[in-house]
Amino acid sequence: MGGVLVVHALHSPGRGVLLWAEDGDRSARSSRTSVRTARPHPFAVPSDELAAVHPGRNASATVLLPSYPSGPQDSPGLVRATARARTRSTPSLTPWTVPAVLVDSSELTDPSPDVRYGAGFLHLAELRRFAEELAARGRVLPVLTTQAGRPTARWRPVVQGLDAVARADLVRRLPPVARSEQRRPGDVSGADPGELVDAALLRFTDAAVRERLGRSPTMPVPPPARPDTTASLLHALSGPDPRIPAGDGVGPLRSALAEWDGVGREEPGAGTALFRLAEVSTLHDPADPGPDLEDQTGDGTRWELQFALQSTEDPSLQFDAGDVWDGMAEDLVAGAQDVLLAELGRAAEALPGLVPALRRARPEYLELDIDGAHRFLTRDAGALLAAGFGVALPRGWDGTRALGLRLSSSATPAPGAVTRGGLGRDELAQFRWTLAVGDDELGEEEISALVAAKAPLVRLRGRWVAVDADALAKGLDFLRRSAGRAPTVHDVLAAARGDVDAPLPVTGVQARGRLGELLAGTVDRELEPLPDPPGFTATLRPYQERGLAWLAFLSSLGLGACLADDMGLGKTVQLLALEAHDRGGADPAAAPTLIVCPMSMVGTWQREAERFAPALRVHAHHGASRPRGDALHSRLGEADLVVTTYATATRDAEDLRQWRFHRLVLDEAQMIKNSAAAASRTMRSFDAAHRIALTGTPMENRLAELWSVMDFLNPGILGVPEVFRQKFSVPIERHGDAGSARTLRRITRPYLLRRVKTDPEVIDDLPAKIEMVADHRLTREQASLYRTVVDDMMEKIEGSDGIERRGNVLAAMSKLKQICNHPAQLLHDGSPIHRAGGRHRSGKVERLEEILEGVLAAGDKALLFTQYTEFAGMLRPHLSARFDTEVLYLHGGTPKKRRDEMVARFQAPDGPSVFVLSLKAGGTGLTLTAANHVIHLDRWWNPAVEDQATDRAFRIGQKRSVQVRKFVCPGTVEERIDTLIASKRSLSDMVVTDGEDWLTSLSTAELREVFALGSDAVADPENDDTGDEGDGDE
Amino acid sequence: MSDRPFWAHEDFTGGRPIRVEGGGIKIHSTKGAVARQWWSSRFLAVLEQQGIGGRLSRGKNYARSGQIVSLDFDAGAAVALVQGTRPAPYRVRIGMRVWDKQEWARIEQALAADAWYAAALLAGTVPPEIEELLGGLGLSLFPAGGSDLSLDCSCPDRTVPCKHLAAVFYLIAEQFDSDPFVLLELRGREKDTLLTRVREERDRAAGASGSGPAALGDLIDTFWETPEAGPPTPRPPDTEPDAVLDQVPEPSMRGLTDALRPIYRALADPEQ
């Protein structure tokens, strides 16, 4: 065999897929000359030879082929070793018999590389794939037919919607050779393409379904054990044998399935016209040097309004008018041509300009000039839509892309333009307004092109934009007026929130450099760290350095700043560093900074200032003896930091308003969440060059609080409350509107810096264990008890010696510690933890509640250590009730089994969050890494013991940083002993070895000093001793 | 014609017509002009040119009060029964000259060549240019006068048109308002036939074979080739594998659809 076979395929209804082939090695000449009856095809391949390539049953077929008197035409794929004699005669259709092979349809999808295939084969293969796709998508239904007298279950395709379009295309593309089988002698018209395709599709669909099911492990459905028609049907549909045993049930089954015969054979539906504005090529020959007269767009294109018909039931079915006139839509839209005509006629009533395009036999489109295209986009399209027609606009057209203004910096500022921490004049000088479309700023050339453009439709960077000449003129005028006037930082920030008086909408603010970073909320990461503030003793963590630089940067711009770092990340330290920076460098003689905080934080501020910025003069302005009037003024004149409470500041507002402070700092700024409350109004009324809010609560989700704090920091920034409510609160809180939330974030982010403990960059910066002191004050009850015990015990100590004195010292120590915990612990009277009316009897418990509130709100877990089982026993039910949560309690008497169980429950993710442990029982051996907070309620002054307890949480398995708090009440033994140990190096060694025993070696005078109650131990007597809620309108 | 003296006629005595039982066909216009569209007005103008004075308004009142019992369009004529003063309704016929085959063929050709006419007619309007088109073919859409129009009524009124004819004129004119094809029907072509002919003419002019696929013998030049592919068909939306079972009507054999569902699921994902 020398030549390559050309294999042809056709579907023979009733028989199946027939293959026959030409062989170029065989003579082209027919030995017979009859024209009427079919003669054997001279160069067709014998069945056996073809079956070697595509196995099947031998068959034969009569095919009508273009032929010459000498013999049939070669198909185009046939290559002959010796060329055929040329013929001048025109071919005519003649029947030939060809040996054929009847093959399984799967042969169509398994072509051989050794032969060529004719168009009929490829088309049938495509039909087969279409059938497979229908089967895979389940677009099939069972039918019950009768074959050879037996009921037979078959699958038929369900061809609807887009599948019908695909089928119509397959019918249209059926090559004539596929229709060539002559079914009856003398018939030369060829098989009907639609019928042929449908018959093949029916056969292929059944085969494709069975083939797919054959791959399924759950198929076929087993044959029924007892006669059951439905089960027999399922078996016949899912297995290789389609036959169903005849029986009583077949009749009803047949009629039941017949009810589905109409599915997929519905009458064509209704249609509507679709008008498509399209840019089409002018088809101007590029080789032609002459001008392209039709070019409307400058890109060798022109505008057309194309007509199409759209199925009402399935709008994805669309037919170009040309196809409708070709009759291709008739199967899907009833009377498609007349429907299109009627629609066009109706559209012409809405749009008389269409009439000229209709004055031809087969209207397909309306030619538009560029004004027409613009008119269509801006007006006519709407009219057609309103009249119920479909309209499709060109890609890239977006009616929202209108001309706008954009504020941007034209270039990256030169290095040095940025002053340290601040913004240079130069950077702002870079700013200018530009015209923009969407996000695209227009260059000079584009603007002149716009001005020069006569057409209202201009292509900018590949997209079409409608240009309103009036808006353009106004925009240019605005540009001229604003030229040469560098905007201020406030201008830029206001423009960024769209708060600007301009003739066109502001589409965006594009700022580079520091300002861009500020707008993007990333400036803290880019600022260079400040030099260590003079006289500042603490070493800032890298994230704290960034916080300091950020605060200094906003301060230099006069922008109010909200530092909203997580609890425990050191907001106080950052603020103190900022103050040290200001006063040690730029402005040593600055006015004092007013720090307003809750009562419980006053001591912390004082202590931390003393510790980290000892050069700063601190005036704690609270208590009954605080100076007023002139005394206050002279006191303030000598202070750097004035620390006061919300309540005191509100009360002394008159005096404080006389001052212009260097800075006004609100600690725990959520205190002013109610913007109408007296404290909030008072804070806003104070005069300060700069304002800072410190808060640990994420404000993004508490919009009223966010408004209040932001409005305090930068008055007016979020508008008046009513508008804010309407624009943000309602859409975000009620409707969860992400767009509004994004806008709000964009507006606030320049003024807000929030780092959370889980931020990777914070974690990297963090020590794994953060130790801090938890401050608290004694209540008056505690204080009076304390004084009584000190007097009583000092008397006893003075009157005893030796072992007795030692015992008295330790007893005194113990009693005072118990008082600091809770009065009831000393009294052993089982009295309630609160006074009547819910007032606290213990400042420590109150502070503990505050801390736990934050811990639980963050979803964290805490370990609470105490030496006193009695205190633990009091706390557990109280905390459990207070926080409505289970509180675990482990003490020396807890059996091992119970202990293990508690540990396991605490470690479980959804287990209890608070675990109270006695220091002795819980200090060793347990792993409680689920906790990332450790609170030492009372002190043992033995770091080893305390660390051991802390290590229950801070050990292998802990993935977060651990915050360790030790309770210290200023002015009591708790603080005194802390200080004593820190100041006397020798003591610390004793502590390590002896616990509290070293106390007994102190002299009575020394003991008196240690035990004496300091004035700072008691809560501001003028305020109620539940702490300082600040609102003042209770 | 009656043998009674002229003054005995109801037209002169002003006798009231008998009401049509159950109400006859009424025109919708309750006062003023009947025809709203220019082509209907033109049709009525033919009537009004006849100068029949008071019969016009009486005819209009007949049409408004529902004296017309029935109206049928026949090839080239409108035939109506109008209830007058006598018990038996009068038979009214308005006939127009029917255009012959050749004339219609020319019209169909013209309509196929310029889609605007058919588009407008299908949208319910008659483009004024159609008069020009027909004029070019030597035809007139509206009856040119008495010779183009035959009017008959079985009433005793000797004057033509009588009020019964006038009533039917008004009714026809109102039908023209909403369906201009009625106008063409009076010239001998039903709407469906006309549209089919125009469609065939359009196909023929475009060189298409018209109905049915091309005979194989006409395709010898492209016998071995596959016609060029059209634009790709968009992918049908993804649906549940057994979505078709939710689409079929509930079969008379209960439980059949649910019994088939596992097969459809296996079909969608046979490897599972």
TrEMBL record, chain B:
Keywords: Metal-binding, Zinc, Zinc-finger
Domain SWIM-type residues, every copy: 138-173
Membrane-spanning ranges: none
Highest taxon of the lineage: Bacteria
Annotated spans, Disordered: 224-257
The protein's name in its UniProt record: SWIM zinc finger family protein
